[in-house]
């Protein structure tokens, strides 16, 4: 019998049900001595006799009967809970809470769709925000982060290849202000910036022929 960590109470209930220490021992896969010691230890802690014992029979005392009636439902519930936790379903189910930056979600729709097709019993609860929160402290199961904002102690798995971002403008804007050809030219143009969670404006990261620059 697989026990749930409340052995003494399970032993007590088995003896009460079988009205025999030996029969209870066989049911529980324990020795008769271990069963007797478990009951004796419980009686000592409760400071009450739970069984009347003779050479031929074992019967609950009045106090033992009341105690068994009170604990039996609770022990049964604990056993059911232990069995449910120990039994892992073949397919995961439940809700997966994810925290992600707003700018990343559009890149992950295909991944989310594939995940839900593979695990139809799962639900995704996705919170998007600009600030970087403590994933564990806020109660999330997982977080999605840009590589440059990953904490050093975080275990991470890449979800997408490196994303290439481009600087674009409308034809009308370029007709009026000219087309920039290098990072220095951008200093003379208007741009739409993104304010980060720490309050600063995101610095564009530019790269050409392996050489990095910022604007």
Written description of the protein model:
This protein is of the alpha/beta class and 215 residues long. It has three domains: 3-69, Arc Repressor Mutant, subunit A (Orthogonal Bundle); 87-149, Periplasmic binding protein-like II (D-Maltodextrin-Binding Protein, domain 2), CATH 3.40.190; 171-214, no CATH class. It is 38% helix and 14% strand. It has seven helices and seven strands, in the order αααββαβααββαββ. The protein has helices at 7-18, 21-28, 32-46, 62-86, 102-105, 109-118, 171-177; strands at 51-53, 58-60, 94-100, 122-128, 142-143, 205-208, 211-214. The strands form three sheets. The protein has a three-stranded parallel β-sheet. The protein has a two-stranded antiparallel ribbon with strand order 1-2. Strands 6-7 form a two-stranded antiparallel sheet. Strand 6 and strand 7 (211-214) form a beta hairpin. Residues 1-5 have low confidence and may be disordered. It holds the Pfam family HTH_1. GO terms for molecular function: DNA-binding transcription factor activity; sequence-specific DNA binding. Belongs to the LysR transcriptional regulatory family.
């Amino acid at each position: 019998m697989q026990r749930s960590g409340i052995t003494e109470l399970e032993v007590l209930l088995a003896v009460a049900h079988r009205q025999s220490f030996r029969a209870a021992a066989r049911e529980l896969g324990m020795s008769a001595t271990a069963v007797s010691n478990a009951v004796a230890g419980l009686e000592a802690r409760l400071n009450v006799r739970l069984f009347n014992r003779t050479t031929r029979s074992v019967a609950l005392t009045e106090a033992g009967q009341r105690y068994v009636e009170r604990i039996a439902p609770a022990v049964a519930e604990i056993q059911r809970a232990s069995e449910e936790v120990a039994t892992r379903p073949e397919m995961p189910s439940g809700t997966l809470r994810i925290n992600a930056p707003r700018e990343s979600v559009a890149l992950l729709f295909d991944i989310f769709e594939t995940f839900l097709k593979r695990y139809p019993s799962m639900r995704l609860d996705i919170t998007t925000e600009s600030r970087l929160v403590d994933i564990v402290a806020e109660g999330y199961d997982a977080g999605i982060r840009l590589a440059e904002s990953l904490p050093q102690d975080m275990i991470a798995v890449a979800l997408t290849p490196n994303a290439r971002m481009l600087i674009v403008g409308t034809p009308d804007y370029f007709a009026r202000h000219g087309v920039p050809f290098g990072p220095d030219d951008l200093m003379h143009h208007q741009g739409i910036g993104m304010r980060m969670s720490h309050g600063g404006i995101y610095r564009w990261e530019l790269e050409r022929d392996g050489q990095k620059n910022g604007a």
